[in-house]
């Protein structure tokens, strides 16, 4: 029998339906793989007992012929999603051993459809980061290495555990979240597919909040089809999230293989950065050529406010974070460091519970929201955000169906290599992805090639609001042309 962990979700779905193997066997194969890959530090909590219980239940359902669309599919869940009775920490010391008494809407929909929980996946603390190095559980290791090198590389972030686990065959797919690039950038660093849905497409209820006007949940998977399968279960209106939009969830999988003939694809000239590595340039033009060969029409477009996206993001996101993180005060849950007064208790708890990057964001956020600076920074950033959104609207108004860009400015880098002296060096990773969050649009990252050292590189497609289907159709064209790859196993 082929190694069950190397199947795609679509293949496993078939194998389960035809009884070639059971959900229990599929789950056990993944649990064994997880155990053998602890060096990657992708999981912060393994839940084998829960997994086997769920697998047995799925086998029963499948046996009765009424398994859900994800019956028996083992998944990993980013530790930002609240899972009932299972520790959820956002990879921050401040949540300590918090065990939520409720389940996030997105994960509850996955379980409703028959998926299996293998465990909780590592991420940057409160999803703040681009390398998974700010996690209180330590960095995640990318299963990809430079040719001929043993250096540990980062898988990107903040959904580094999700990307690493999916790439290393430690789950068939994973949940992730994206506030400025946290699904698409790690997907690009690991040759996986990552989808950041339109803002409002997936419920944020029960997901630890970072920047509420930017946060969106989405899948990371090994193929475009698998990501479409997961999206269908994750998406949908939820009255518990007032920003969740009440429109029907299409059958995303049906978009796979649909012709892209006649589609207009925008190539934004502002994304051609000075000093951009030649291999990123090449990747981008390869992607354009593949889409053209499939019948799409390429047009140059302009998104003039792009250059203000990153600075504006680093005002809006910390502002919202400082407000969202005010709740971690040692009173209701998580860590409490005692003090002589309540003020001292708050201070000591927050000083001890938050890591450096989170503290930096809370300080920046508090500053830009404070009286006297609010207009100069926060309000201004909000205005810039509106202009960024308008850039995209103008472009789509001219009939553009989707926009093609590189997903990241480089391939994966070494653990400890970036951002030590200057945090902006790390922030620059999201230069191609933050605009999409600022505008609330959907984006997909698809593996599209390798750099000179054999490391994966990804392309990004940006779509119209609530038109994820077009991204799946176009993404599949790129996947077909570029081919799929998994990292050679060294762990
Ligand atoms: N890297 C960005 C940040 O640190 C985005 C993170 C994310 O999308 N959660 O804010």
Provide an overview of this structure.
By secondary structure, the chain is an alpha/beta fold. The chain has one domain: Amidase signature (AS) domain (Amidase signature (AS) enzymes). It is built from 15 helices and eleven strands. It has helices at 9-17, 23-36, 48-63, 105-112, 160-167, 184-190, 224-234, 278-293, 309-324, 342-353, 356-369, 374-397, 423-427, 434-439, 468-482; strands spanning 43-46, 74-78, 116-121, 173-178, 193-196, 216-221, 264-268, 297-301, 402-406, 443-450, 456-463. An eleven-stranded mixed β-sheet has the order 1-3-2-4-6-5-10-11-9-7-8, sandwiched between helices. Helix 8 links the parallel strand 7 (264-268) and strand 8 (297-301). Helix 2 (23-36) runs antiparallel to helix 3 (48-63), helix 9 (309-324) packs across helix 11 and helix 9 crosses helix 12 (374-397). The longest helix is centred in the last third of the chain and has 24 residues, at 374-397. The protein is globular. It starts with 8 loop residues before the first helix and ends in a 9-residue tail after the last helix. Glutamine binds next to loops.
Mean pLDDT: 97
CATH topology category name: Amidase signature (AS) enzymes
Q: If classified by CATH, what would the architecture be?
A: Alpha-Beta Complex
How many helical stretches? 15
**What is bound: which ligands?**
glutamine
The neighbouring-strand order within the major sheet is 1-3-2-4-6-5-10-11-9-7-8
| Global geometry | globular
Share of helix among residues?
Answer: 25-40%
Number of strands: 11
- The computed structural class is alpha/beta
